[in-house]
Amino acid sequence: MPYQAEYIWIDGTVPSPLVRSKTRIIADGKQPGIWGFDGSSTNQATGSNSDCVLRPVFVAKDPLRGANDKLVMCEVLNTDMTPHVSNTRAACAETAKTYAAFEPWFGIEQEYTFIQNNRPYGWPEHGYPAPQGPYYCGVGGDKMPGREIVEAHTAACIKAGIAIEGTNAEVMMGQWEFQIGVLAPPLIGDQLWMARWLLFRIAEDFGVFATLEPKPMLGDWNGAGAHTNFSTKAMRAPGGWDAIIAGCEALKGRVREHISNYGIGIEERLTGAHETARFDKFSYGTSDRGASIRIPWGTARDKRGWLEDRRPNANMDPYVVSRLMVETVCGAASANPRRGAARNGKATTGATSTRARAKQPVAAKRARATKATKRLAKAS
Ligand code: ADP
Ligand code: MN
Ligand code: MN
Ligand code: MN
Q1: What's the pLDDT tens digit per position in 330-370?
Q2: What residue ranges line ligand 1, CB within 6 angstroms?
Q3: Last-in-domain residue among 62, 87, 112
Q4: What is the count of structural domains for the chain?
């Protein structure tokens, strides 16, 4: 018997793309292959030259249909099989290949808000619910609207084989979170986009929709982010602390480029209040939820583990964010192999070259100078 394959892709809507999908009936025993769509209806082509190509990149079991049905995450190509301009996965995959020896891993916390009748799900028709406080990880009464949708979404992700790790209710009523990971790029992007599609699709059945808007309610209500947890092999290895700090320092050097690629509307969310650092400031610290980068307490205790970039918006593109983080952190570690991150990577060389040293930030130079001074003091 033929089966149904739901082909899912990311469109060309600006400034934030939408997810699209359509169904293909495939003969028994055949795998989902290349397909196409009308790009003129998705902001991906003109009417006169409208064909775009769908190439499957990640296939999963469809948890909503029959046992043989599939979900097919795709990337969009031009008809000459080159990546379409809206295709952010291709560059992510390229970067992942370049820095494969660093073995980068990601875990992403996806926050989102349920909306019904133009207001967060469960909010009163007039006025506001009780202020923030009881909703985060809350239970009971009419405080927790949306739980039935969250339950259905979680079960669907597990059934599909998506690496969902957990869920929780968030600080604002109607806002929730799920986490996906730990996965290497670009798979982290494939699975997060598929999990988003499942969320949107399942919410339909409840007469609700889920939005990734970063600041759905202005005022004293938390925004929605996508904290991006990141590690390399060196960060996870014993003594990985140096690589983690080097990673934070590398991120400090490219604040503007990261912020401008972390999702539309980031200035409204990263105000400096509501558990965020200001978008134009950069800081990192252990357990600090007001910092741009938080080093989890377990990582600080073990002197190895991972870092959490708290800046990305809920509406960020995980292909873009994971590419940038790898480029910035692994790129810096390649240029400065003695500073930790590349110790277990391919870029292991003996001494740092003069050229690489010239590129090092002042802080690193200072730290080295201090070490050298101490060594001298000991020797004398
Ligand atoms: P919190 O809400 O306290 O920030 P969560 O439990 O929501 O924490 O999320 C923790 C995230 O850290 C998960 O997405 C998980 O995948 C991620 N994570 C755990 N270990 C690693 C690691 N070694 N490298 C990268 N990410 C990691
Ligand atoms: Mn979380
Ligand atoms: Mn959260
Ligand atoms: Mn977090």
Answers
A1: 999 999 876 544 444 444 333 334 344 444 444 444 444 44
A2: 105-109, 165-166, 179, 181-182, 227, 229-231, 236, 305-306, 308
A3: 87
A4: 2
Range of the domain at 39: 3-87
Question: In which residue are the tokens 């290949």 written?
Answer: 97
Of the three residues 67, 87, 107, the one that is the final residue of a domain is: 87
Report the separation in Å between the CA atom of 293 and the middle of ligand 2, taken as the mean of its atom positions. Answer: 14
For residue 168, give the ligand 1 atom closest to its CA. 7
Provide the strand spans (E) within the chain.
Answer: 3-10, 19-26, 35-38, 51-61, 70-77, 105-116, 119-120, 164-169, 175-183, 209-211, 228-231, 284-286, 293-295, 307-309
The pLDDT tens digits of the residues spanning 125-177 come to 999 999 999 999 999 978 899 999 999 999 999 999 999 999 999 999 999 99
Q: Same domain for 224 and 368? A: yes
Of 165, 230, 330, best ligand 1 pocket probe by most atoms within 8 Å of the beta carbon = 165
CATH number, position 321: 3.30.590.10
Q: Is the pLDDT assigned to residue 197 strictly greater than 50? A: yes
With 0.85 as the threshold, say if the pTM is over it. yes
For residue 10 the two structure tokens come to: 């990311």
Output the six-digit token pair for 92.
């992510």
Ligand nearest to the CA of 181: 1
